[in-house]
Amino acid sequence: MDRIMEHPILGESPEKKIVTFTYDGKTLEGLEGEPIAVALRAAGVMVHRYTKKRHEPRGVFCAIGRCTDCVMIVNGKPNVRTCITPLEEGMTVQTQYGVTAKEEQ
Length: 105
Ligand code: FES
Description:
With 105 residues, this protein is mainly β. The protein has one helix and ten strands, in the order E-E-E-E-H-E-E-E-E-E-E. FE2/S2 (inorganic) cluster is lined by residues 60-63, 65-70, 81, 83.
């Protein structure tokens, strides 16, 4: 995982439990309670969704739950803001195409 474990101002990161979740069918690991978007970023995932009309990729933009660029399908529910949703063991996370999991033709 690619993470800052010791920060010059904030100090050391507190110990957190490692959990597993699936991202588009792949098993990944993250830290329990961290935002889903942070776990994905640590695993190198930058694209969370594609826009409906122009099929353009989107990822984390505001990181505070205001813009919807980071929405994904989480446990079967679309439009979940992953930058403010805590990661839990066994979550299923999928790339969102428009408002669904699969690209529309
Ligand atoms: S990045 Fe803006 S709502 Fe998540």
